[in-house]
């Protein structure tokens, strides 16, 4: 009888440990380990590893709070940002949860110290840090794609003019180019290799990048294909149009920067100059002012 009770107790212990692990995990860890590259895994040390260990305790709860719809949107956002630093959905959720926990602890500490507003500011900043970082990485990637697109199209047009087909030309150009645009083109080639039509593959790339230049390129390319326009001349025209649009966006950004520079000068240099002038006047007339006051 005692042996049966011992075996039953051991079984309950194993079931309890397994159940606790299932509550803390989501089943995506093995998939994540396969998706992430070895260099990225080697870099994850120090604070990043601490965030991953802390966030893994709350990964299941975080995924349930997001829900399937928001998780799909988040996965699209990560893919659109180019998976910076090998980021996956699981890594993002772990680190998001870790920052929220750290912010909550900081809030409690500052409230105990009598500084609740500092704690609230810290908690809000940490809670939104991963989202801000991801959006910033996506915006930088989009800007880099816009910068690389005209040169990429020029080389592609020359390659097509040399006699290669469009797909072979894209493969050849991608061999000598690095960066997010070349990565997107390789993705298009992979999709076409598994049976996706050229139209669907390029439309998917346009939806992923959400770049005005890529959108113009894809639209013009599909129109040239439908109308039967020679591809080499169409690529030259597309490259010229994209370069003009990029120059226009640069001019618009420069025009928007002028008021910002004026505001910074007004808020920083002008007050300092006024204080310096006022101090000089007071020092020069200290005897007269001392007699008055």
Automatic annotation (TrEMBL):
Residues 1-141 form the DUF5936 domain. Keywords: Cell membrane, Membrane, Transmembrane, Transmembrane helix. Residues 152-277 form the Type II secretion system protein GspF domain. It is found in: Cell membrane. The chain crosses the membrane at residues 87-111, 117-134, 261-284. The keyword Lipid metabolism does not apply. The keyword Transmembrane applies. InterPro entries: DUF5936, T2SS_GspF_dom, T2SS_GspF_sf. It is a multi-pass membrane protein. It comes from the Bacteria. Pfam families: DUF5936, T2SSF. This is Membrane protein. It comes from Cellulomonas phragmiteti. The lineage of its organism: Bacteria, Bacillati, Actinomycetota, Actinomycetes, Micrococcales.
């Amino acid at each position: 009888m005692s042996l049966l009770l011992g075996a039953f107790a051991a079984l309950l212990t194993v079931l309890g440990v397994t159940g606790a692990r299932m509550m803390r995990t989501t089943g995506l860890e093995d998939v994540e380990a396969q998706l992430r590259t070895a260099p990225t895994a080697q870099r994850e040390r120090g604070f990043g590893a601490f965030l991953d260990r802390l966030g893994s305790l709350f990964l299941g709860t975080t995924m349930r709070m997001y829900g399937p719809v928001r998780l799909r949107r988040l996965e699209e956002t990560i893919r659109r940002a180019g998976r910076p630093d090998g980021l996956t959905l699981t890594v993002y959720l772990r680190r998001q949860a870790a920052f929220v926990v750290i912010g909550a602890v900081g809030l409690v500490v500052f409230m105990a110290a009598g500084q609740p507003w500092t704690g609230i500011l810290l908690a809000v900043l940490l809670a939104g840090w991963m989202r801000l970082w991801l959006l910033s990485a996506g915006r930088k990637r989009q800007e880099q794609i816009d910068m690389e697109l005209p040169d990429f199209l020029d080389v592609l047009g020359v390659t097509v003019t040399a006699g290669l087909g469009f797909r072979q030309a894209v493969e050849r150009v991608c061999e000598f180019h690095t960066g997010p645009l070349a990565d997107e083109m390789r993705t298009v080639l992979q999709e076409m290799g598994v049976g996706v039509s050229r139209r669907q593959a390029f439309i998917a790339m346009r939806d992923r990048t959400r770049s005005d230049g890529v959108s113009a390129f894809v639209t013009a390319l599909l129109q040239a294909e439908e109308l039967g326009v020679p591809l080499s001349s169409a690529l030259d025209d597309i490259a010229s149009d994209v370069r003009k649009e990029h120059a226009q966006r640069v001019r618009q950004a420069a025009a928007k920067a002028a008021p910002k520079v004026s505001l910074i000068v007004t808020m920083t240099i002008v007050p300092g100059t006024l204080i310096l002038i006022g101090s000089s006047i007071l020092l020069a007339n200290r005897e007269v002012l001392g007699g008055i006051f």
